[in-house]
């Protein structure tokens, strides 16, 4: 009985240790073009300068790419972001999206096991 309880504790500790990997271990290096984004979205995209500006940090890269393509194509209308997205290539958009996805965030975004960076 006691042995079984200890085993359970060890198992729980092991699971928790596995989940507690530092987020920084998975961080992606900042693309050069991320510097301009920080002017409004904050360092790492996680501290916007105004409350109505969205946080990019920790958002799914496929969502961020989708949003940036829509600003660029004019499907999502925002004059500020249209100007920002106009100069981004597909490769820039992908690199920026992967970078911001990897940044630490205070937002809660559930992990989807089947989610793969695209
Ligand atoms: C001058 C300020 C400013 C700069 C610089 C800026 N943004 Fe934005 N960004 C905004 C604002 C304001 C919004 C909200 C627009 C809206 O309502 O659609 C936004 C929205 C976004 C969104 C949509 C987020 C969501 O949750 O839907 C993405 C993605 C984004 N920005 C990426 C970037 C990237 C990448 C850069 C750098 C290349 C950048 N932004 C530079 C102001 C800025």
Fold and architecture overview:
The N and C termini lie far apart (48 Å). With 118 residues, the chain is an all-alpha fold. Helices cover 50% and strands 0% of the residues. The chain contains five helices and no strands. The chain binds heme C (HEC). Heme C binds next to helix 2, helix 3 and helix 4.
Describe the SSE topology.
Blueprint: H1 2-19, H2 34-41, H3 61-73, H4 79-86, H5 90-101
The structure holds heme C (HEC).
Residues 33, 36-37, 39-41, 53-54, 56, 59, 64, 67-68, 76, 78, 80-81, 84, 96 line the site of heme C (HEC).
How many helical stretches? 5
DSSP, total strands: 0
What's the structural domain tally? 1
Kindly report the name of the CATH homologous superfamily.
Answer: Cytochrome c-like domain
Q: For this structure, what is the CATH class?
A: Mainly Alpha
InterPro entries: Cyt_c-like_dom, Cyt_c-like_dom_sf, Cytochrome_c_Oxidase_Subunit
Signal peptide: 1-25
GO molecular function, one term: metal ion binding
Keywords: Electron transport, Heme, Iron, Metal-binding, Signal, Transport
Short note summarizing the structure:
This protein is mainly α and 118 residues long. The protein has helices at 2-19, 34-41, 61-73, 79-86, 90-101.
């Amino acid at each position: 009985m006691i042995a079984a309880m200890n085993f359970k504790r060890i198992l729980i500790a092991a699971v928790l240790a596995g989940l507690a990997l530092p987020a920084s271990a998975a961080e992606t290096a900042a693309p050069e073009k991320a510097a301009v984004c920080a002017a409004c979205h904050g360092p790492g995209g996680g501290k916007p300068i105004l409350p109505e500006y969205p946080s990019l940090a920790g958002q799914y890269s496929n969502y961020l790419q989708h949003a940036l393509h829509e600003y660029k194509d004019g499907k999502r209308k925002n004059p500020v972001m249209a100007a920002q997205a106009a100069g981004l290539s597909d490769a820039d958009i992908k690199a920026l999206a992967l970078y911001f996805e990897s940044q630490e965030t205070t937002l809660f975004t559930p992990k989807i096991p089947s989610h793969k960076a695209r």
